[in-house]
């Protein structure tokens, strides 16, 4: 599969991660997007030896869209600081099968990640103190469009908790993401992926000071995303 580079300079590189591919290595040993990007840099710039590439954030395996890496230690360190300080605006698109009520709003809660089961759950505030590692999570959402029973949401997470969008939409809004069986979707996608897409990252470049906005096209071969083709050309 050809790597789609969305942004590249001396310090950073962003690509459009296909759904179903790991962001970073895990115990499966499967090929990762990080492997692809390293190979791309090595080939394009004819670099001898190992290629430096640092992970700034990650996307879940069944999720597609913008993913950003650091090409230098300076770029990596400073972008990590921007993410920690919540100075990166993240926009996701999600297809769900239940209309949210209300159609626009905010969700706030506490998320606890069960690492053994690789699953997150929402906790009442009173219970969050009893679960070591439970963290506050906040996102904003709005309805963008509807085609039949398929509804397109724009989601802007303020925080970056494990499986945050997936569990908050399912547990708090009662609108599981299409294909996300882990969090209650009644619909399975043939490829096992889910209809959650990292649409855009916006930030001030930590080295050059320039405003950067990186947008990823939705997966072309996915029929559900195709239903919203007019909108997804924005």
Give the topology.
Elements: E1 5-8, E2 12-17, H1 33-44, E3 54-55, E4 64-70, H2 73-84, E5 89-96, E6 104-114, E7 119-123, H3 125-128, E8 135-147, E9 150-157, H4 164-171, E10 196-204, E11 211-215, H5 223-227
Parallel strand pairs: 4-10
Antiparallel strand pairs: 1-2, 2-4, 3-4, 5-9, 5-10, 6-7, 6-8, 8-9, 10-11
Mean pLDDT over the residues: 93
What form results from the Cα inertia axes? globular
End-to-end span in angstroms? 24 Å
In the CATH hierarchy, the architecture is 2-Layer Sandwich
CATH superfamily: Pseudouridine synthase
As a percent range, the share of helical residues equals 10-25%
Order of helices and strands: EEHEEHEEEHEEHEEH
Number of strands: 11
What's the tally of helices?
Answer: 5
Described by strand count, sense and barrel closure, the largest sheet is: 11 strands, mixed
The secondary structure category is alpha+beta
Q: Percent of residues in beta strands?
A: 25-35%
As residue ranges, the low-confidence spans are none
The CATH C-level name is: Alpha Beta
What name does the CATH topology carry? Answer: Pseudouridine synthase
Question: What value does the Rg take, in angstroms?
Answer: 18 Å
**Domain unit count:** 1
In summary, what is this structure?
With 234 residues, this protein is α+β, with helices and mostly antiparallel strands. 18% of the residues lie in helices and 33% in strands.
Structure explained in plain terms:
With 234 residues, the chain is an alpha+beta fold. It has a single domain, classed as 2-Layer Sandwich (Pseudouridine synthase). The chain has five helices and eleven strands, in the order E-E-H-E-E-H-E-E-E-H-E-E-H-E-E-H. It has helices at 33-44, 73-84, 125-128, 164-171, 223-227, and strands spanning 5-8, 12-17, 54-55, 64-70, 89-96, 104-114, 119-123, 135-147, 150-157, 196-204, 211-215. Strands 1, 2, 3, 4, 5, 6, 7, 8, 9, 10 and 11 form an eleven-stranded mixed β-sheet that branches. Strand 8 and strand 9 (150-157) form a beta hairpin. It is globular, with a radius of gyration of 18 Å. The relative contact order is 0.18. The model has no long low-confidence stretch (mean pLDDT 93).
């Amino acid at each position: 599969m050809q790597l789609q580079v969305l942004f590249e300079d001396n310090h950073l590189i962003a690509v459009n991660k296909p759904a179903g591919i790991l962001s970073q290595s895990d115990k499966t040993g499967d090929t990762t997007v990080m492997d692809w990007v390293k190979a791309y840099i090595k080939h394009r710039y004819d670099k001898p030896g190992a290629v430096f590439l640092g992970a700034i954030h990650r996307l879940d395996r069944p999720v597609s869209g913008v993913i950003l890496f650091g090409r230098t230690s300076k770029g990596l360190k400073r972008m990590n600081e921007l993410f920690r300080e919540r100075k990166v605006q993240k926009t996701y698109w999600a297809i769900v099968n239940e209309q949210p009520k209300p159609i626009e709003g905010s969700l706030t809660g506490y998320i606890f990640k069960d690492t053994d089961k690789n699953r997150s759950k929402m906790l009442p505030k009173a219970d969050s103190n009893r679960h070591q590692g439970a963290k506050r999570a906040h996102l904003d959402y709005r309805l963008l469009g509807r085609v039949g029973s398929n509804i397109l949401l724009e989601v802007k997470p303020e925080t970056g908790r494990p499986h945050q969008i997936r569990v908050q939409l399912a547990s708090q809004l009662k609108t599981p993401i299409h294909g996300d069986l882990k969090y209650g979707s009644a619909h399975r996608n043939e490829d096992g992926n889910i209809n959650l897409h990292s649409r855009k990252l916006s930030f001030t470049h930590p080295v050059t000071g320039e405003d950067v906005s990186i947008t990823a096209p939705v997966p072309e071969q996915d029929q559900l995303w195709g239903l919203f083709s007019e909108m997804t050309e924005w």
